[in-house]
Predict the structure of 4,5-DOPA dioxygenase extradiol.
Amino acid sequence: MTTLSGFKAFTDNLPKQEQLMPVLFIGHGSPMNGIEDTEFSRRWTQMAKEIPTPQAVLVVSAHWFTKGTKITAMDFPETIHDFGGFPKELFAVQYPAPGNPALAKETASLIHSAHVELDHDWGLDHGTWTIIRHMYPEAKIPVLQLSIDFTKGPQYHYDLAREINALRKKGVLIIGSGNMVHNLRMVAWDKLNDPEYAYDWAAQMNDTFKNLIEEGNHKALINYTTLGREALLAIPTPEHYLPLLYTLGLKEGKDSISFFNDKAVGGSLTMTSVKFG
């Protein structure tokens, strides 16, 4: 149990900073990116060198889809292997980063639009550890996850993210982990190694999403179902797209925007990622 003195100690150690931490939306793709040396994993490693070292990392992962909003609040979250059919080497990976119950409690206190449950049963799923182990391989920085409430619509998630913006002022790196375009049923398995191959609708929507992000047209991105048939093909289910809305909600007016890992995989997924700030 986190004591009040422990909570105070944490907040005392994270005074407000003049420089905001950036916010990242990262296309995580296949779990194999967690153990393979790919252009995507190499870019994650490089990104960690380009941004300030965070005091903690908070990830909104597509793979923690819950009824209600939860946040991991244990001292040492387990490494969750939430997939099947992959090599045993992937299941053997452990990422022993600490959690931070005090930060979990502080984050929950910032959110007034929902009751946030302090969770002690989940851990770090592959939407988190496959990325973070490349960025911070020593596993010394506390890592937490915030779940996505599947009973709520896109606007809710965008607005909820705005409530935790204060964490950026305390050195917390917030990451949305998903994929802008994510249609597993339409993957062209014979084109997995062709980074230039994308279905026309996938390439179109990837460009549309990027243009809307650059224009600051968050309303259109929130109401993505109105963007036509191509958008519904790109986002047949919302869990991999909603983490993007969290990062958009955290963006401030002066934040710069840059894209990375802007590639397609198997025709119907994109790894396109964004750095705000």
Remarks:
- The longest strand covers residues 56-66.
- The beta strands are 23-27, 56-66, 69-72, 116-119, 143-149, 172-178, 257-260, 264-265, 269-270, 273-276.
- Residues 1-12 have pLDDT under 50 and may be disordered.
